[in-house]
Write a structure and sequence with these properties.
alpha/beta; five-stranded parallel beta sheet; six-stranded antiparallel barrel; 25% helix; 31% strand
Length: 351
């Protein structure tokens, strides 16, 4: 095995800690890096990271990314909710911050790879590197890495790709580490106080609006479209013989659109901002598409439209297709590319 200088993105949690430990076991020269981000628990997290680095006997370097994170991730997150979209800040952060700015800093310190605690793998085909699903599909995090470009993937190292979460905890305990909980880490690291409080701090306050059916019938009121997401059932306050669900968000007009369960199904969707891991495949492309981090991949065809956009046509209608989220394209377990969902469509509900 080639022994490398590996910089590990440390958070103080079990995953990054064991990623560093495994990189050591593989014979690599390991150096920890901790991102200073605008988080309310930053001091406690930094204390924990220093304890972990000391226990592993590895050097630790702090990289201050607070301003850039606020400008690129938090601003995107806030703007999306303000306009009725449902963002995925982790996907953006991985591309722009963790494997972008942090990786640049890691390189300047002479590291030959950046390692993280993601449950994903890297496969090579014809000399090219692809993000690949982790062995444990229940924990797989390849979806969150879908926007990485070829250079970023080639520089990445995922020591936990062949491990399960349970195995990671068992290893940590065997090495003398004590972690307080086996709960999964929170995806959105800066939302410790909850979404409403966070958005209020960003200047996104309550704004009364209408809850309406798809045909325009008003049946309720809301206090802000950002409080809802496609597929939501609870918290609507709309008693009926059968449940209502959020089927669309009209941010421009501050309206929440509701319907019955079958109205959540979409047979296609419009996507934009396509990005491929390498060169684009022959188009139209046909393969597996994952619409959310825990969505069961669906077979679909990606085709161009007359207006220059792209349309994903599903073999079977999909539930709760959500604008602002990412559609990730797979060939078996390999991530080929991704796009941003603009709108879900269904011929049965079109005029």
């Amino acid at each position: 095995m080639v022994r490398l200088k590996v910089g590990v993105a440390m958070s103080g949690g079990v995953d990054s800690t064991m990623a560093a430990s495994l990189a050591q076991e593989q014979g690599h020269r390991v150096h920890g890096f901790f991102m200073l981000l605008p988080l309310p628990n930053l001091d406690a997290q930094l204390l924990r990271v220093r304890q972990v680095a000391g226990q592993l006997a590895i050097p630790l370097t702090l990289i201050d990314l607070r301003c850039r994170f606020a400008d690129e991730v938090i601003a995107y997150f806030t703007a999306a909710y303000r306009t009725g979209l449902t963002p995925n800040p982790c996907i953006l952060c991985n591309h722009a911050i963790k494997f972008g700015l942090l990786a640049e800093a890691v390189r300047t310190h002479g590291m030959e790879r950046i390692a993280t605690g993601h449950y994903a793998r890297i496969s090579r085909r014809n000399g090219r590197a692809f993000v690949t699903r982790g062995t444990d599909h229940a924990k797989d995090q390849s979806y969150f890495l879908a926007r990485l470009d070829a250079d970023q993937v080639g520089y990445a190292h995922f020591p936990l790709g062949d491990w399960t979460k349970e195995q990671v905890y068992e290893r940590a305990a065997g090495l003398g580490f004590r972690f307080e909980s086996r709960e999964s880490s929170q995806d959105v690291c800066f939302l410790t106080g909850g979404l409403p409080a966070f958005l209020a701090g960003q200047g996104v306050g309550e704004q009364m609006g209408v809850i309406a059916t798809r045909d325009g019938r008003q049946i309720g009121e809301h206090r802000g479209v950002w409080q809802y997401t496609i597929g939501q059932r609870r918290g609507l306050g709309l008693p009926d013989a059968t449940p209502w669900y959020v089927v669309a968000l009209d941010g421009a007009n501050n309206r929440v659109i509701v319907g019955k369960r079958d109205e959540l199904l979409r047979d296609r969707c419009i996507v934009h901002s396509l990005r491929w891991a390498h060169e684009a495949p022959a188009l139209p492309w046909r393969g597996l598409v994952q619409l959310r981090s825990r969505h069961l991949p669906a077979r679909a065809e990606l085709i161009p439209t007359d207006g220059g956009a792209w349309q994903l046509v599903f073999d079977r209608p999909q539930r709760a297709v959500t604008p602002g989220q990412f559609a990730v394209f797979y060939e078996d377990d390999l991530v080929l590319g991704s796009a941003v969902i603009a709108a879900g469509l269904d011929r049965r509900h079109e005029p």
